[in-house]
Write a structure and sequence with these properties.
membrane; 8-stranded mixed β-sheet; alpha/beta
């Protein structure tokens, strides 16, 4: 292990990274709160400002993936599709198998200039998560409880507001509804069998209501659906903790573009289209497991300096006073100050660890297996 790789595993450095993310996030959230006064007078200016504020926060996580861990993302797609990236409103369908699948999606958003304006249909519990949920709130992210009777009006209103969004947006949907585990997969395939649908090997049965509703509400705004199938070289199982420890992963993403005009408008036919899409995604994963690659030409878009420069800005702004204060505490020799500062570090480390826990597969809650959950669309 080289010196740099060793340093990346040290708790003190990781704590400093977390400190920069958390404190900069709180500052950004406060500024976002102040921008709310713009909404009644100039909604589009409010949106443009918050798009850039959110970029300043999310790009720090992308920096961890691209520069800290050195993870590489290879796209399997054609040049004609790549030329469309960042030039249109789209819906993204991504398989939900890994703790860092959202980060791989974000790094592609960043490289094509849509990270700040990226959207997601998020579970309501995330609204309460500091930094993540708060930033999403100011970005007009649509939160749902995954109970259609309760979500119907909220989802329709939220999606309707996005029709005039001034920046090109990529709207991410995890159609499986929850992250893949063997237990959830077994239950999901029982549902598939009861509905007479083909069984999937590498995915859960997609929940069609979110997709059909999003497509219907954003008709005329989004021009295409991007199907993204993600996997990792050498059967790697990436984690956010692995990224923080500087571990490098090799991500492969098969991307297919479907113009909205080619997708059926009828809700039932649209749902059938989605089921067929997931059968094709399953075949792509089978190919990857056998061959170690996806079919098609490859493109590796270069990482951009903006994520690194943004992090260095926040690190310079926040770490200098922190280090000066820490030195002052130690030099003072005051047991009370030292104890207080130590308590601050402990609380900060716990808070950061809990934020990381949001991404962990074993901690991602789901109603899969409950009777209500089995009434999938």
């Amino acid at each position: 292990m080289g010196l740099l790789a060793y340093l990346k595993t040290q708790f003190v450095l990781q704590l400093l990274l977390g400190f920069v993310f958390v404190v900069s996030g709180l500052i950004i959230n406060f500024i976002q709160l102040l921008t709310c006064v713009l909404w009644p007078f100039n909604k589009q200016l409010y949106r443009r400002i918050n798009t850039r504020l959110s970029y300043s926060l999310w790009s720090q996580l992308v920096m961890l993936l691209e520069w800290w861990s050195g993870t590489e993302c290879t796209l399997y797609t054609d040049q004609a599709t790549v030329e469309k990236f960042g030039t249109e409103h789209v819906i993204i369908i991504l398989n939900h198998n890994y703790e860092i699948d959202f980060l791989c999606g974000w790094t592609m958003c960043e490289r094509y200039g849509v990270l700040g304006s990226s959207k997601v249909l998020a579970k309501h519990e995330l609204l309460k998560v500091p930094l993540i949920g708060w930033t999403w709130y100011f970005l007009e992210i649509v939160f749902c409880k995954r109970k259609w009777e309760e979500d119907r009006d909220t989802v329709f209103r939220g999606l309707d507001r996005l029709k005039d969004y001034p920046e090109f947006m990529w709207f991410l949907l995890y159609c499986e509804g929850t992250r893949f585990t063997e237990k959830k997969h077994q239950i999901s395939m029982e549902v598939a069998e009861s509905k007479g649908l083909p069984k999937l090997k590498y995915h859960l049965l997609p929940r069609t209501k979110g997709f059909t509703t999003t497509l219907k509400c954003l008709k005329g705004t989004v021009s295409a659906v991007y199907d993204v199938t993600l996997n990792f070289k050498d059967h790697q199982v990436p984690t956010l903790l692995g990224i923080i420890n500087g571990k490098k992963y090799m991500a492969d993403m098969r991307i297919r573009r479907f113009p909205v005009d080619e997708i059926p408008e009828d809700e039932k036919e649209c749902a059938n289209w989605l089921h067929k899409l997931y059968q094709e995604k399953d075949a792509l994963q089978e190919h990857y497991h056998k061959e170690g690659t996806f079919p098609g030409p490859t493109i590796t878009p270069p990482r951009r300096l903006w994520t690194l420069l943004n992090f260095l800005f926040w690190a310079t702004l926040l770490l200098s006073p922190l280090i000066n204060f820490a030195c002052g505490v130690v030099v003072s020799g005051s047991p009370l100050l030292i104890l207080g500062f130590s308590l601050f570090l402990i609380i900060a480390s716990i808070a950061i660890r809990r934020l990381i826990g949001v991404t962990e597969i074993k901690k991602t809650g789901s109603s899969y297996g409950d009777e209500g959950a089995k009434k999938q669309n």
